[in-house]
Design goal:
It is a single chain. The protein has about 800 residues and is of the alpha/beta class. It folds into four domains: about 110 residues, no CATH class; about 270 residues, 2-Layer Sandwich (Aconitase, domain 3); about 160 residues, Aconitase, domain 3; about 200 residues, Alpha-Beta Barrel (Aconitase, domain 4). Helices cover about 35% and strands about 15% of the residues. The N terminus and C terminus are likely disordered. Keywords: Iron, Iron-sulfur, Lyase, Metal-binding.
């Protein structure tokens, strides 16, 4: 059959589909001449129908999704082709269309392969009654290849789990790709449609021509085409968490991200956990990871908030009440309670986003009608068709339970340099600032709309603008699009705000926006650590509403005065406009992929996790590795370097070094350079290679470069009262010994520059005449023996987590550890 009658680009796409489906072009197109004058959408839809008729429903659905993307505006993440003819569309867009057809058809194949692999092992599903479990326990049990007992999982269990999504930024992708390259082996993601990559941390249209951003931009471009990624967002389309949570994450999913604010996806009841780059790289290649089932705390929201109270003030109130790295430290924070009905998706996003500032592993909301309605409003069927709604059991056990009265929440401010140094703004009125910043991932669309309406009231009152800098950064292009259509960007401009492309901006302070040394800022971001916004800059954090009201006088102002004149109906009308823009699906009526869902039920239908039980599950080392030292020296000798509580990763390795340094030695040259410049010489020349610190060492960012900087400098061990979850895991993953020790006597006697001896086999620390015992988890020992996760990955390939979590006979964890001694 002659296909020259079809447009050149149509013929090319036809060849792409033919190759992917391994079917002849004649089987896909019966009458090519009928398609000569078709629009692009009509052409693709005819192919979709023919593919469906050949019994390839999965591939037809994938092509249907490409049609959805064609009908979606560019600002909203689509191609914006609509019903255009071939000549009306430029070659670059058609090139992208061909790529997406290829990528989504490949995704249909990898989805099936992943499904088949998941059902190869794991034993038969359990149908008996199980122990009472928390929400996190249910999701982990559901994703486990096998559970250690027929009754479910408990805190402390080691599990090998499958993952649903991997997310990364262009900056963390640099570290991930370095880990992948070190494998010296071919690499492909386990699924090309479940890797979300967004350029947001460093890159900005204003610095695209600079060497470091160019390198990072090339990295995400290369990943897109090499891995045929369906979810590569390119540069500055969205802050990585914003559109991922709005449009991708689904209830019951397990998400891993190489960023500490991955926890944001708990707003849609995903269990979303931030890890280091090497950890996330291994999960990307295998579709698996390991986890020690964490404990949970429960926060029940009660009462009703004022209409203008958003998620930011709620989480600041939680931080004030609980304090960081206390009850939530290395635990999951589960949110629920009757007051949750007053918390929108955006409010929940802001709350979960800052659970990492609490010191938690993650935060997650119990799914409810708000969750269900939000997810079912999405355009693409595949982003709303894999929801699994779990609810915690009535008698689930929590370490602590708290009631938070939303009626007590008021505008708060977290005073530099701690996110839990929270006070009502009325205690610090008239504090002066050099700049006001509204932005970062924690600032939602709802926040931006309300802040703009506050600014309009200020303009209407004739308030003057004091000298100072004002910056607003919407979280994504779809949000920017909505603000522009509502006329709200114009309000920001009238009030002296510079509107920049979506990105981290001043919240990270390593891109185009960097705060000057000594400058004082009021910001709606989520962290106010030292040097976070720029070397020597000072930042206090609050809600976008408070920033907006304060930006006229450049002094802290209670927003409630201006809020009295903000029209609540207008605010709700604007939010409804934004909702309609997000849920406006394709008008096509003859494609099931596009069909509108039936009206949502008020509450979701809750499921029980599908548990797979293999009797001999407890992880242990392989026989040949017992009683051998592996790569870890049995005895460590040296002198102590003392550090305090809450040493964050921004202090250990400044953000700018993460974007420019490649090797551990490069990173070591910047270790503690801004806060403790004597540290490097002490480690190198005075043999102070053992760090002894206080609480929550390594809190803050997920950057594994902090561990690598310490290793590159020669640090052999870190002993602390506690570690942040991500930092502690990064140490084991990268082969650096970390010891958590809750013994006040040790920390009193461990003096700066004092001598210390650590015996790994005896699990003992010696200080002069005093000895202190410590424990190590089985997985920590295994990874340390292997020399870190990447080394183990090289050795075992895609079976790395099956090997690390090797199931053997029933033994207690202490027996496992004794078996690992050498």
């Amino acid at each position: 059959m002659e296909y020259s009658a079809i447009n050149e680009w149509g013929s090319r796409i036809l060849r792409t589909i033919s190759a992917r489906l391994q079917q002849t072009e004649a089987a896909l197109i019966k009458n090519a001449s009928q398609l000569r004058h078709c629009t692009i959408i009509e052409f693709l839809d005819q192919l979709r129908i023919n593919i469906e008729q050949h019994g390839r429903s999965t591939e037809a659905q994938a092509l249907g999704h490409v049609i959805v993307l064609c009908n979606t505006e560019k600002d909203l993440g689509g191609l914006g082709i609509h019903h255009q003819s071939w000549p009306a569309v430029n070659d670059a867009t058609l090139e992208e269309l061909d790529f997406l057809v290829n990528a989504w058809l490949l995704a249909a194949k990898t989805r099936k392969l992943h499904y088949d692999q998941q059902h190869e092992d794991g034993g038969a599903p359990i149908k008996r009654e199980t122990d009472a479990m928390t929400l996190a326990q249910k999701i982990l049990a559901h994703h486990a290849h096998s559970v250690p007992r027929a009754s479910g999982v408990r805190p402390g269990d080691f599990l090998r789990v499958s993952v649903d999504w991997i997310i990364a930024s262009e900056l963390s992708w640099q570290g991930m790709s370095n880990s992948i390259q070190s494998l010296d082996a071919p690499f492909q993601p386990w699924r090309n449609d479940r890797f979300w990559l967004s350029g947001d941390h460093t890159v900005d249209p204003r610095n695209y021509q600079e060497p470091t951003p160019q390198k990072l931009l090339e990295g995400i471009r290369k990943a897109k085409y090499e891995y045929k990624m369906t979810e590569n967002q390119g540069a500055n389309h969205t802050i990585m968490h914003t559109e991922f949570c709005r449009e991708r994450a689904q209830p019951g999913m397990l998400v891993l991200g190489s960023d500490s604010h991955t926890c944001s996806a708990g707003c849609v009841s995903s269990l979303a956990i931030g890890l280091g780059a090497a950890d996330v790289s291994a999960a990307l290649g295998t579709g698996e990871t390991w986890i020690k089932v964490p404990e949970s705390i429960r926060i029940n929201f009660v009462g009703k908030p004022q209409w203008y109270i958003g998620g930011k003030d709620v989480i600041l109130y939680v931080l004030q009440q609980l304090r960081r790295n206390t009850f939530a430290a290395e635990r999951v924070v589960e949110f629920g309670g009757a007051g949750s009905e007053w918390l929108s998706f955006d409010a929940r996003f802001g709350i979960c986003n800052m659970c990492t500032e609490l010191g938690a592993i993650t935060g997650i909301f119990t799914p409810d009608g708000i969750t269900k309605r939000f997810v079912e409003g999405r355009r693409g069927r595949m982003y709303r068709s894999e929801c699994t709604y779990f609810a915690p059991d009535e008698h689930a056990e929590y370490i602590s339970t708290f009631d938070i009265d939303l009626g007590s929440v008021e505008p708060f401010i977290a005073i530099y340099p701690s996110p839990d140094n929270v006070h009502p703004i009325t205690e610090h009125l008239d504090m002066l600032f050099d700049g006001c910043f509204i932005g970062a991932c924690t600032t939602t669309e709802e926040d931006l709309v309300l802040a703009a309406l506050i600014l309009q009231v200020g303009l209407d009152r004739g308030l003057t603008l004091a000298p100072g800098k004002r910056i607003v950064v919407p979280g994504s292009r779809p949000i920017l699009h909505n603000l522009e259509h509502l006329g709200l960007l114009e309000i920001y401009s009238k009030c002296g705000y510079t509107v920049t492309a979506p990105g981290c901006s001043l919240c990270l302070g390593i891109g185009a926006d960097v705060a000057e040394a000594g400058s004082k800022w009021l910001s709606s971001q989520n962290r106010n650590f030292k040097n976070r916004m720029g070397k020597g800059a000072i930042g206090h954090i609050c809600s976008a509403a408070t920033v907006a009201s304060s930006s006229f006088s450049m002094s802290l102002t209670d927003p409630r005065d201006l809020l009295r004149d903000v029209s609540q109906p207008l605010f709700q009308s604007h939010l409804l406009h934004c909702q309609r823009a997000r849920t406006n699906r394709s008008p096509a009526k003859d494609m099931d992929i596009h069909a509108m869902s039936a009206p949502a039920e008020t509450q979701p239908c809750y499921s029980n996790p599908k548990l797979h039980f293999i009797a001999d599950h407890i992880p242990r080392s392989a026989p040949e590795e017992q009683h051998t030292g592996g790569r870890l020296t049995d005895t460590i000798l040296g002198r102590i370097y003392r550090l305090g509580d809450f040493v964050d990763t921004d202090a250990i390795i400044p953000g700018p070094a993460c974007s420019t340094c490649i090797t551990d030695d490069d990173l070591a040259a910047h270790c503690f350079e801004l806060v403790d410049p004597l540290f490097r010489d002490a480690v190198r020349t005075s043999d102070q290679k053992i760090v002894v610190a206080g609480k929550a060492f390594g809190c803050g960012s997920s950057r594994e470069e902090a561990v690598r900087a310490l290793k590159g400098l020669g640090v052999t061990c870190v002993i602390a009262e506690s570690f942040s979850f991500i930092f502690g895991r990064n140490m084991a993953t990268l082969g650096l010994l970390g010891i958590a020790l809750q013994d006040a006597d040790f920390f009193e006697k461990a003096k700066h520059q004092g001598s210390i001896r650590i015996s790994i086999s005896e699990r003992r620390i010696d200080l002069d005449n005093d000895s202190f015992e410590f424990k190590l988890d089985a997985m920590e020992v295994r990874l340390l023996q292997e020399g870190g996760l990447v080394t183990s990955w090289k050795k075992h390939g895609t079976k790395v987590f099956a090997k690390l979590c090797q199931e053997r006979s029933e033994r207690s964890e202490m027996e496992v550890l004794r078996g690992l001694e050498w």
